[in-house]
Each structure stands twice: as structure tokens, then as C-alpha cells.
Amino acid sequence: MGLEGEIKELYPPKRDLFMKEVYLLIGGNIGDRFYFLGEANGLISQKCGHISRSSAIYETAAWGKEDQPAFLNQVLIIHTAMGPVELMAAILEIEQQMGRSRRERNGERNIDIDILYYENDVVELPDLNIPHPRIYMRKFALIPLSELSPAKIDPVHKKTIQALLEDCPDSLEVRQFSK
Questions:
Q1: What is the DSSP letter of 71?
Q2: E strand intervals along the chain
Q3: The domain spanning residue 128 has which CATH number?
Q4: Domain count, the chain
Q5: Would 152 be classed as within a structural domain?
Q6: Which residues of 126-152 are buried (b: 16+ CB within 10 A; e: fewer)?
Q7: Which residue from 143, 151, 145, 131 is spatially nearest to 172, judged by alpha carbons?
Q8: Whether 28 contacts 71, CB under 8 Å
Q9: What angle do CA 58, 77, 88 make, to 5 degrees?
Q10: Is residue 26 a contact partner of residue 37, using CB atoms and an 8 Å limit?
Q11: Is the pLDDT of residue 10 over 80?
Q12: pLDDT score, position 18
């Protein structure tokens, strides 16, 4: 490693104090699933904030309503200046722009974007709960999360992502997707 690499390792660039670290889960199970994940990545980057890291893409059977196609899912870490409510509004706008229709709970969809974590904040509003209230029950969220941040502490359960994954009651197989 050269001198420049050593300096960056010792003194990583500082993040803007107004930027918040947010974990998003994106997924879909109809249409060209891989294409829709790519589109969502681009729109999130444009409208919500810089994507600093992203997990591999994972495929899993539908959770909750199992008589539908398998989902592709990915976790993104973004840095945003938006507050949680403003960010949720931008996410809903992206979903609508991409043609998401909400016909039934846990139904088929071309794109779904969830806020998993907003910094270490706990947000409880009528239409917004952060951390995502069912995160601890879903391997399709915990596996890509553990790939990126296994030691992150869930502010509600007071456990690491890795510990939540180990305790997860979900029995659905989650496998890395390759196109």
C-alpha cells in the first residue's frame, strides 16, 4: 500500500455532520426484477442521497403471502440530509414513478423500498416506524444487512444484526443471486 493509501486508512474522509446514515431494503418480485433493482438504485442516488455501500443481491421465496414469485432483495447504505419523513416521501415517490401499485398487503410488486434504519433513531409515527418493525423476523433483510454491518446494534432489540440473524425464526431459504 502506498503512502496515499496509508494516509486514507489512518485519516478516512469525514462525513458531513448533517448527513445521516440510512439502511434501505429494496426488492421486487414481478417483471424484470434485476432491472428494477438497478432503476431503484439510480433513483435513490438521484433523489435521496449518495449510496455508499450495497450488499449482494439475494433471492428468496415470498414472505407472508407465499403464492407468488420469488423476490430479489438488496440492502443499500445511503447518506442523506433528509429527515425520516422527507426520506419516506421521496421513497414513495420513487416507487410510484417506477409503477408500483399497492393492491394488497404483502402482494406482488415490481419494487418495494423500506427504511430499515435511520442512524440509530427510533421513529414511531402513524405511517412510519423505524427501525422496520419486522426486521428481526426476516432473513431476507438480515442476511444482506449482516453482509454489510454484522456488528450494527439494533436500537430496539439491543442486539447486533448478526445476533438477530442467529435468533431469526424465518425458515425461508435466502440465496445469493447471480444473473
A1: E
A2: 20-28, 50-54, 58-60, 71-80, 112-118, 123-125, 128-130, 174-176
A3: 3.30.70.560
A4: 1
A5: no
A6: eeeebbbeebbbbbbbbbbbbbbbeeb
A7: 143
A8: yes
A9: 100
A10: yes
A11: no
A12: 80
| Region at 170 (left for phi over 0; alpha for psi -120 to 50; beta for the rest) | beta
Q: Which domain holds residue 110?
A: 16-134
Quote the cell numbers at residue 151. Answer: 456488528
What radius of gyration, in Å, describes the C-alpha atoms of the chain? 17
Is-cis flag, bond preceding 131, omega within 30? Answer: yes
Q: Is residue 157 part of a domain?
A: no
Report yes or no on 147 lying in a domain: no
Distance CA 45, CA 164 (A): 28
Cα 45-83-143 angle, rounded to 5 deg: 60
Coil, helix or strand at residue 59: strand
Q: CB neighbours (10 Å) of residue 117?
A: 26
Give me the pLDDT at residue 99, please.
83
CA-to-CA separations, 8 to 12, 50, 115, 149, 177, in angstroms, rounded: 5, 20, 30, 21, 33
Main-chain phi, psi angles of 80, to 5 degrees: -135, 150
β-strand partners of 54 = 76
pLDDT of residue 68: 79
- Distance separating alpha carbons of residues 106 and 156, to the nearest angstrom: 24
- Rounded Cα–Cα distance for residues 166 and 2 (Å): 39
Residue 36 lies in a domain: yes
Q: Which grid coordinates belong to 107?
A: 402482494
